[in-house]
Amino acid sequence: RRNSYEMCKETADWLRARTAQCPKTAIICGSGLGGLAEVLDNKTYIPGHQNPILVFGELNGQPCVCMQGRFHYYEGYSVGMVTFPIRVLFLLGVEVLIVTNAAGGLNPSFQVGDIMFIRDHISMFGLGGQNPLRGPNDERFGVRFPCMSDAYEQDLLSLAMESVQELGFVSFTREGVYCQLAGPSYETIAECRVLQALGADAVGMSTIPEVIVARHCGLRILGISLITNKVMMSYNSQEKANHEEVLRISVVRAEALQKLVTCLLGKLGESTNPL
Ligand SMILES: O=P(O)(O)O[C@H]1O[C@H](CO)[C@@H](O)[C@H]1O
Ligand SMILES: Nc1nc2[nH]cnc2c(=O)[nH]1
C-alpha cells in the first residue's frame, strides 16, 4: 500500500538525508497558491520524481515546509497516494497542517476572492464509502475509529481570526463548510443546488482525504479555501466555471494569503515557545 508505514518512513528518511530542517508546520498550497512557498527564507527545494515539490524553509522565523501542488484523485491517483504526503509529513515531525485550496462558492453571501476558513466538511467520498482510512489500521498512525467532529482545530482558527483582524482582512474572510467531489468536471446546476441544500458553503476536488488522514495521526489542522468563483445556481446564468478563472483569482489573493499565513506562524511560534 502506497501509504503504508514502511513506505512513508522510507520517504521521510530520504527527505531527512536531504535537509537538516525540522519543520513543525506544513502548508499545502492549493491551485494557484504555490507562490506561498516563495516567501520562505532559507529555502531548500526538494522536487519529487512526480509533482508535488516540497520547499523547506522558515516563515516569520518558524521552520516550515510547503507542498507546492498536491495529488488529486481526479488525476487517477488512489486515495492512498493522495494522502501519502500527509503521513510522510507526520513522520518528519510536523505537528500543524495548514491546508489550502481553491473552491467554488455555494453560499450566496460569499464573494469571489473571499477567504473561507473551513469549519467543517462534507465528504462525498466518505458518505459514498471511499474513506482513505479504509483497510487495516496501523496503530503507529492512529486509532481505528478517529473522531472527525473536531478535525478543524478551534485554537488554530482563533489564532487565524486574530491575524485576520490585525491585517484588516475581516471584510473578505468567512467561515464555512467545504464539500469535496471527485472532479474533474465541475458541478451541474442541479448538483450545486443539492450541495447547498446539504449545508455546504464551498465546493472543490481536494483536501478532505488529506484532512482525514492528518486528523487520524493527530495533526492540528487549519483549512483555508479561497473562493475563486461562484457556482452556477440558475439556468439563466451566462457564466461558466473554468480553471483559468480559478487560477487568475487565486493569484490575485495569493499575497493576502501569504500575509495571513506569515502572521499566523508568528502567533503559533509565540503560543508554543513558553518564554
Ligand atoms: O483544491 P485545489 O487543488 O486547490 O484546486 C481546485 O481547483 C481545481 C479546479 O479548478 C481543482 O483541482 C480543485 O480541487
Ligand atoms: N468542484 C469545484 N472545484 C472548484 N475549484 C475551484 N472552483 C471550483 C468549483 O466551482 N467547483
TrEMBL record:
A Gene Ontology biological process annotation? purine ribonucleoside salvage
Origin superkingdom: Eukaryota
The EC number(s) this enzyme carries: 2.4.2.1
From the UniProt record, give the pathway where this protein acts: Purine metabolism; purine nucleoside salvage
Q: Does the keyword ATP-binding apply?
A: no
Alphabetized GO MF terms:
purine-nucleoside phosphorylase activity
Q: Decide whether keyword 4Fe-4S is in the record.
A: no
Keyword annotations:
Glycosyltransferase, Purine salvage, Transferase
InterPro entries from the xrefs?
Nucleoside_phosphorylase_d (IPR000845), Nucleoside_phosphorylase_sf (IPR035994), Pur_Nuc_Pase_Ino/Guo-sp (IPR011270), Purine_phosphorylase (IPR011268), Purine_phosphorylase-2_CS (IPR018099)
Q: Which residues form the Nucleoside phosphorylase domain?
A: 25-262
| Enzyme's top EC category | transferase
Q: Which transformation does this protein catalyse, written as a reaction? A: 2'-deoxyguanosine + phosphate = 2-deoxy-alpha-D-ribose 1-phosphate + guanine; 2'-deoxyinosine + phosphate = 2-deoxy-alpha-D-ribose 1-phosphate + hypoxanthine; inosine + phosphate = alpha-D-ribose 1-phosphate + hypoxanthine; guanosine + phosphate = alpha-D-ribose 1-phosphate + guanine
Function noted in UniProt: Catalyzes the phosphorolytic breakdown of the N-glycosidic bond in the beta-(deoxy)ribonucleoside molecules, with the formation of the corresponding free purine bases and pentose-1-phosphate. Preferentially acts on 6-oxopurine nucleosides including inosine and guanosine. The purine nucleoside phosphorylases catalyze the phosphorolytic breakdown of the N-glycosidic bond in the beta-(deoxy)ribonucleoside molecules, with the formation of the corresponding free purine bases and pentose-1-phosphate.
PANTHER family documented for this protein = METHYLTHIOADENOSINE/PURINE NUCLEOSIDE PHOSPHORYLASE, PURINE NUCLEOSIDE PHOSPHORYLASE
Q: Which family does it belong to?
A: Belongs to the PNP/MTAP phosphorylase family.
Question: Per its UniProt record, what NCBIfam families does this chain match?
Answer: PNPH, PNPH-PUNA-XAPA, PRK08202.1
Name under which the protein is recorded: Purine nucleoside phosphorylase
